[in-house]
Amino acid sequence: CARAGFWRAALGCLGALLASGLRPSTISCSAAISACGRGGGWRPALALLEQMAQVGLETGTIEYSATLSACGRGFAWHHAWWIFREAARRSVERDIVMYSALIFASKQAKDWEQ
Predict the structure, then answer these.
(1) For residue 111, what pLDDT is reported?
(2) pLDDT of residue 114
(3) Contact of 41 with 77, CB cutoff 8 Å
(4) pLDDT of residue 113
(5) CA 70 to chain centre
(6) What local confidence, expressed as pLDDT, does residue 37 receive?
(7) Where do runs of H (alpha helix) occur along 55-95?
(8) pLDDT for residue 38
């Protein structure tokens, strides 16, 4: 699902897990966030990142980077900056992938304004 960008299908899989009484793992949520990013679904990616933290699933560089990428593809640069700051607040290591995603999101915003 993640590679093809089928974010709705990925979110449906998570919903099916929950409906069957199973708890999604960090890996399954990360895959869904990546799928959202590839499909331009920045809102569901952001919501899923927040839900992961609320239910106590580990969130780290991979999840934050994927959400930043989703925001970049969705022209949501202001949310990308919030995620970047939130990662720092939660002591998530900000690596080159995260910085690149933030730069991409900012560039997308500039291109969109022109």
Answers:
(1) 57
(2) 41
(3) no
(4) 53
(5) 6
(6) 84
(7) 61-73, 77-89
(8) 83
The answer to whether the CB of 48 falls within 8 A of the CB of 7 is: no
Task: Kindly state the tokens that stand for 50.
Answer: 């927040």
CA-only gyration radius of the chain, Å: 14
- Is residue 113 helix, strand or coil? helix
Entry pTM:
0.85
The amino acid that residue 26 corresponds to is T
Residue spans of the chain under pLDDT 70: 1-5, 111-114
46-78: buried (b, 16+ CB within 10 Å) or exposed (e) per residue?
bebbeebeeeebebeebbbbbbbbbbbbbbbbe
Q: Using an 8 Å Cβ cutoff, are 37 and 70 in contact? A: yes
User: Which class for 33: exposed (0-12), middle (13-18), buried (19 or more C-beta within 10 A)?
Assistant: buried
